[in-house]
């Protein structure tokens, strides 16, 4: 049953500016009109029991709609400012947070949200954290079981521990000897994993050799947030799903020199029962065919001699290396208190800041460039560029990239 929007709320809806919040009770609420709907973001920071909620007021039927909320939402808000962008996103800037943790997007009409609305049959909104700069592209590695994916990945991680990080998947299969929970996999129960999948926590998942495997959004973002390049070891179905997602990755398929050699490696590893080996070998034939399907993988490597294959892998990763780094220390200590935002026609947004109460002097005007956004829900939104704007004499501004 819908509920009418309170009159004071409807009167104050202007589509762009935040509605004043009750600073005494630390409650906050903003309303943003998008076509026939008003998106209300509200919450409280009450005695550690903080909550954030999104609801939608349908201005045609004059009733409240409770949307399915996907993506990772901000852990805390002490108030925020909103601005409707013209690409189905509402920009949400948290108050009194460092610049690298204050820019968020609430997607209300992006392709991802549209697709989820169709799938779920409900209203959908999706949170996505904004990240300044671009992260290096994650690396998806696929190939049949026993081909040597794990061996190659381990070599990379060992040689470049500060450069590459492994995306720890979830699986319902039992741990092998020496496999550690949270390191090799998050070993989990099917019902729990299915619930998390329904709650939109997974970037991709697939049934592989009779068990459920999946990459959580958190697994990829944890690696990327640490400034490392994320490596995903997933099957071909998973690679296909990631290709279709908003994650901009590089896709590598590893082939064995022959089917006989694959069988030999799988048996020599001695980690599976005979029945499981048979199942993995049956699936390998289909995977080898799939791996060659046009447009799915960017590179196909044959793992014949391990060292030769490893050198080729390193070379192709180096040539694809993205010069941008994710963590920009200059933004970490800039705690900003955005008082209002102004949109310019050229995809630049001016963030006007008041004093942040910390006593540390920060610039009062920033410019946010959103012309090169990448990614988005259910993961992070990257490609944001931030500049400080300093007023000099005679109306001249000095603009400096952070
Ligand atoms: P995957 O992760 O693809 O299932 P693994 O990395 O576990 O495969 O490798 C399977 C087995 O094959 C392991 O015992 C590993 O030591 C061995 N192996 C990996 N690459 C080679 C290679 N190029 N030549 C011979 N054996 C290999
Ligand atoms: P294993 O049981 O040998 O560790 O893995 C079996 C297969 O599952 C491998 O092909 C591996 O790439 C794949 N796999 C591991 N994690 C994931 C995941 O998160 N998603 C998908 N789709 N496949 C995965």
UniProtKB/TrEMBL annotation:
Residues 136-318 form the Guanylate kinase-like domain. NCBIfam families: guanyl_kin (TIGR03263). The keyword Nucleotide-binding applies. The keyword Kinase applies. It comes from Musa acuminata subsp. malaccensis. Belongs to the guanylate kinase family. It comes from the Eukaryota. CDD domains: GMPK (cd00071). One of its GO terms (cellular component) is cytosol. It is an enzyme of class 2 (transferase). Gene3D superfamilies: P-loop containing nucleotide triphosphate hydrolases. PROSITE patterns: GUANYLATE_KINASE_1, GUANYLATE_KINASE_2. It catalyses: GMP + ATP = GDP + ADP. Keywords: ATP-binding, Kinase, Nucleotide-binding, Transferase. Transmembrane segments: none annotated. This is Guanylate kinase 1. GO terms for molecular function: ATP binding; GMP kinase activity. SUPFAM superfamilies: Galactose oxidase, central domain, P-loop containing nucleoside triphosphate hydrolases. Its EC number is 2.7.4.8. SMART domains: GuKc (SM00072).
């Amino acid at each position: 049953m819908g509920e009418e929007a309170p009159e004071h709320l409807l009167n104050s809806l202007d589509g762009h500016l935040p509605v004043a919040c009750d600073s005494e009770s630390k409650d906050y609420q903003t309303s943003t009109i998008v076509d026939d709907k008003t998106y209300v973001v509200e919450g409280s920071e009450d005695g550690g029991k903080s909550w954030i909620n999104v609801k939608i007021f349908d201005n045609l039927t004059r009733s409240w709609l409770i949307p399915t909320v996907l993506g990772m939402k901000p852990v805390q808000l002490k108030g925020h400012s909103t601005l409707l962008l013209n690409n189905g996103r509402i920009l949400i800037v948290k108050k009194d947070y460092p610049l690298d943790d204050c820019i968020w997007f609430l997607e209300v009409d992006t392709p991802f949200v549209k697709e989820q609305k169709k799938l779920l049959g409900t209203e959908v909104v999706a949170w996505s954290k904004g990240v300044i700069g671009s992260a290096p592209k994650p690396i998806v590695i696929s190939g049949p079981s026993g081909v040597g994916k794990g061996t190659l990945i381990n070599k990379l991680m060992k040689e470049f521990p500060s450069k590459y990080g492994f995306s720890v998947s979830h699986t319902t299969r039992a741990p092998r000897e020496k496999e550690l929970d949270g390191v090799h996999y998050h070993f989990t129960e099917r019902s729990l994993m299915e619930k998390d999948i329904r709650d939109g926590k997974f970037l991709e998942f697939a049934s592989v050799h009779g068990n459920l495997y999946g990459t959580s959004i958190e697994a990829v973002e944890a690696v990327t947030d640490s400034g490392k390049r994320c490596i995903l070891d997933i099957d071909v179905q998973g690679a296909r799903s990631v290709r279709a997602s908003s994650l901009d990755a590089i896709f590598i398929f590893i082939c064995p020199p022959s089917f006989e050699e694959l069988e030999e490696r799988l048996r020599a590893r001695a980690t599976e029962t005979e029945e499981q080996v048979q199942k993995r070998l049956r699936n390998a034939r289909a995977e080898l065919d799939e791996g060659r399907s046009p447009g799915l993988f960017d590179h196909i490597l044959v793992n014949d001699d391990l060292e030769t294959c490893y050198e080729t892998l390193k070379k192709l990763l180096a040539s694809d290396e993205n010069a941008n780094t994710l963590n920009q220390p200059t933004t970490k200590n800039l705690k900003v208190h955005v008082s209002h935002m102004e949109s310019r026609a050229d995809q630049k947004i001016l963030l006007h800041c008041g004093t942040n109460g910390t006593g540390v002097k920060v610039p009062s005007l920033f410019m946010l460039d959103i012309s090169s956004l990448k990614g988005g829900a259910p993961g992070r939104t990257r490609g944001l560029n931030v500049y400080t704007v300093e007023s000099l004499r005679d109306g001249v501004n000095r603009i400096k990239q952070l």
